Amino acid sequence: MEIAKNIARVQEQIEAAAKKSGRNSKDIALMAVTKTMPPERIREAYQAGLRLFGENRVQEFAEKSDYIADLHGARWHLIGHLQSNKTTKAATLFDAIDSIDSVRIAERIDSAAQKSGRSLRVLIEVNVGGESAKSGVAPVSSEFERILRAAPKLPALEICGLMTVPPFTAKPEDARQYFTVLRRIRDEVANRKLPNISMDELSMGMSHDFEVAIEEGSTCVRVGTAIFGARPKMESETAH
Ligand SMILES: *Cc1c(COP(=O)(O)O)cnc(C)c1O
Hints:
By secondary structure, the chain is of the alpha/beta class. The chain has nine helices and eight strands. Helices cover 38% and strands 18% of the residues. The chain has an eight-stranded parallel β-sheet.
């Protein structure tokens, strides 16, 4: 009940933020971030109508996946940092990888996907705040360029946009500058019309700042706490 209510509230907020910025809320996907959540809570979100889910860790999702395999039509995205020894597993478990942050990982995912006859939509993660504890390529960097240029040689990957986790800001409004930067980078890359790259997706905005992210053009908000409540702190989140 609680989860369904929370989802309804978040959807209303998405609607309002879209209206405020002259956008159609149909162009903004709501992703439920289910890290640390047991299968029963994930199932509740599914029953409330959600179909798009984000998990941070390959191993954690591998352990849960059998218990949620019956949720037809659900799509699972990896949104956390991917280690190179997990690429094969990731390429078979997930429908999309939203956190590509090196050409090496992109190549490994591509070859794993080819071997299992799959094709995967991926996003490039950009570290807009330049924080050393966060993953993602730097906005202007040789690694970012290398990923873009490698695209034609990655036939099993569809590079379709950018993702970011900006520095935590107490006031949501203070995150706007980072969302603006990501949108500008997206526009610049899109204008270059590079082969095998589309830049339709901008995955940005979390529980405390998704409304601002929508005003800045987000096409996918990744929401955990506002749907499931507070979760125990993970090591990867103590960087705040
Ligand atoms: C945990 C996480 C989220 C969701 O964060 P909330 O603040 O709980 O909404 C979104 N994106 C990524 C990459 C995350 O790790």
